[in-house]
Amino acid sequence: MRLAPGDEAPDFTLPDADGNPVTLSKLRGQRVIVYFYPAAMTPGCTKQACDFTAAMPGLTAEGVTVLGISPDAPAKLAKFREKEHLTFPLLSDSDKSVLTAYGAYGEKMNYGKTIMGVIRSTFVIDADGKIEKALYAVKATGHVDRLRKDLGI
Question: Which helix (H) or strand (E) element contains residue 150?
Fold first, then answer.
């Protein structure tokens, strides 16, 4: 199932890289970018995370919070954050329940084969908790710049 603009964003509480719980509904009143990526410390995921970090001053100035979600364990996320100097929360969805709720886990093509895995996806959630943008199967390179242009940030 895929989400579309106007849908209620599925709420979640997930541990961050330090094991602290982060709850989406507690961020109501602000715009939130939630992006799902396959695995910390892989080339595409590193590029995307570093692009979000580079964009954080402008996003923060506009009151936008960024959350990155993958199935990685918190300890791996902490290493990724430290190694790449990431400046936004990375959340662990080890059972893939949030990935599934957002339609960001399922069949995808990988090197010509159909596999089950994380579908690189980004969601912009408005201050009322509704999906503003739902972007599936995005490319890691250039995605953050395009997203910022689309949002006027």
Answer: helix 143-151
Full-prediction pTM beyond 0.85?
yes
Following DSSP, what letter does each residue of 111-122 receive, concatenated?
TTEEEEEE--EE
Q: What angle do CA 123, 70, 136 make, to 5 degrees?
A: 35
Average pLDDT over residues 41-47: 94
Q: Residue 111: pLDDT above 90?
A: no
Q: Which conformational region is residue 69 in: left (phi greater than 0), alpha (psi within -120 to 50 degrees), or beta?
A: beta
Residues annotated as catalytic are: 45
| Residues making up the chain, counted from first to last | 153
Tell me: pLDDT of 127 over 80. yes
How much of the chain exceeds pLDDT 90, in percent?
90
In the chain the first and final C-alpha atoms are separated, in Å, by 29
Instruction: Specify the residue for token string 């995005």.
Output: 138
CB 30 within 8 A of CB 65: yes
